Amino acid sequence: MSVNPLSLFDILSRDQDALLADWLAAQSAAQSRRDKLNEAEIRRASREFLAALTQALPKSADTRTEAWNDVRDLLAELSDSRASQGYSPSETATFVLSLKQPAFERLRAGIADTAVLGEQMWQATQIIDALALFTMEAYQKSREGVIQRQQQELMELSTPVVQLWQDILALPLIGTLDSGRTQIVMESLLEKIVATSASIAIIDITGVPTVDTLVAQHLMKTVAAARLMGADCIISGIRPQIAQTIVHLGVDLSQVTTKSSLADAFLVALQRTGSRIEGRKTDR
Amino acid sequence: MERIPILRMGRNLLVTIQVDMHDQLAMTLQDDLTERIVKDRARGVLIDISSLDMVDSFIGRMISNIAAMSRVLDAQTVVVGMQPAVAITLVELGLDLAGVRTALNVEKGMALLTTLE
Fold first, then answer.
1. CATH 1.10.490.130 is held by the domain A8-150
2. Burial profile A215-244: b = 16 or more Cβ within 10 angstroms, e = fewer
3. Are B100 and B67 in contact (CB under 8 A)?
C-alpha cells in the first residue's frame, strides 16, 4: 500500500466539527451531572482541546515533549477547575477518554484492512491514554493542594494563645496533638510569651480527645520549652478518664502543676503573680 | 585572646554571650566564671543569651555545666533571654536544662535572683 493509512490526525483535521459534535454527545452521555459545568463551557474547552491536539499531533508522538505544551496546559487548567468544583476523578478523566468512541468509529469506517486498523487504533489509544493520565495527575495535584491549604488553615485556627490577665496566658488546645501541631503550638506560645512577657501559661486540654504517651510527651516538650523562656506552665482541663489513662500509661506529670479546670488553674496563676479577684460588697 | 566579659552587679555576676560560642571560648568562660564567683563571693550568676540565635548540644550542655558548677560554689544561676527557636531546639535535643533557673529577660532575672537571696 502506497497511500498512508487514515490516522487520528487525519480525522481531526478533516472533520473536526462533526467529531466535536459526536464527542460532546459522548461526554454528556457519560456525564451524570451536567448541571455542574454549563454546556457552553464544555463546548469551549472541547473545541480548544481539539484545536491544540491538531497542532501538536504532527509535531511529535510523545505527549511529554514541548510540542504538547499547549495541550497539557489546557488539560491542567481543566483539571484544576473541575477539582475545585468537586468533580470525581472518573468524571474528570472521562473528558479525554470519551474522545475514543467517536475517533475510533471514524477510524473503523475509514480503514478496511484490520491489521492497519489495529495499528492506527493502538497509536490513537496510546496518545489519548497518555493525555488522560496527565489529566488525572493534574487533578490529583490540585486536590492535594486544596488538602494542604486546608490543613494549614486548620492548624492556624486551632492554636490560639490568649492573654487572660497581666502575665497570664492561656492556650486552649482542641483536637489531637501530633508532632507537626506541637511545633506550631510551641512556636506560637513562645512568641506570645516574648510579646507579652508573661510568666505563667495555662495549657488547657479540655478539647484534646485522647492523651497517649506521644501526646503527653509533646505536652511535656511544650512545658519544657516554656520553662526555658522563664514561664511556668499549668496544665488544666484534665478529664477523669484522661487522668486514669495518664496514670495507667505511667506518664510522669509530677514536674508540672495540673488542675482539673481552667478556673482553678487561673486562680493558682493569679496567686503566683500576686493578683487576686475580689467580689464587690453589695450589702452594707 | 577572645574572652566573654563578666560584669559584677553587687553580689551578682552578669555574663552576656554575644558571640558564637566555640569549645575554647566555653572552656575559658567556665574557668573565668568559677574564679570570679570565688573571688567576688558572688551569690548569683545571670547568663544573658538573648543574642544567641543558634544552639547545639554542646552549648546546651555547657550552660547546664556552668549552672551546676555555680551551685557547687553556692551561687544561683539564672539563664535569661532565650529565643523561642533556641528553646524549641534545646527541647528537641532532649536538653531541658533541669536545675537551671530561667527568666524572660535580664530585668526579670535580676528580680528572681533578689527573691532567692
1. yes
2. bbebbbbbbbbbbbbbbbbbbbbbeeebee
3. yes
The verdict on a CB contact (< 8 Å) between B82 and A230 is yes
Q: What would the pLDDT profile of A133-169 be if each residue is shown by its tens digit?
A: 999 998 888 889 888 988 888 777 767 889 999 899 9
- State the Cα angle at B103 between B100 and B104, rounded to 5°: 140
In this structure, of A38-42, A81-85, A129-133, A207-211, the range with the lowest mean pLDDT score is A38-42
Q: Which helix (H) or strand (E) holds A174?
A: strand A168-174
The domain limits of chain A are 8-150, 162-273
Q: Which residues pair with A204 in a beta bridge?
A: A172, A236
Which residue in B82, B105, B109 is closest to A228 by CB distance?
A: B82
Tell me the CATH architecture of domain A162-273: 2-Layer Sandwich (3.30)
Q: Residue A198: what pLDDT?
A: 92
Residue type at position B112: L
pLDDT digits (tens, 9 = 90+) for A46-93: 888 888 888 888 887 777 888 888 888 888 888 888 887 878 888 888
ipTM: 0.78
Q: How many CB atoms lie within 10 A of CB A145?
A: 13
Window 134-163 of A, Cβ < 8 Å to B: none
To the nearest 10 degrees (0 to 180), the angle between helices A16-30 and A100-110 is 130
Which of A166, A186, A229, A233 is the mutation pick for testing B, counting most B CBs within 10 A? A229
Stretch 219-238 of chain A: residues touching chain B, C-beta under 8 Å: 221, 224-231
Asked whether the predicted pLDDT for residue A200 surpasses 90, the reply is yes
Q: Which residues of A touch B97 (CB under 8 A)?
A: 228
Average pLDDT, chain A: 84
Tell me the domains of chain B and their CATH numbers: 6-116 (3.30.750.24)
Three-state DSSP string of B27-52:
HHHHHHHHHHHHHHCCCEEEEECCCC
Q: Are A63 and A131 in contact (CB under 8 A)?
A: yes
Q: What's the average model confidence in pLDDT over A246-265?
A: 88
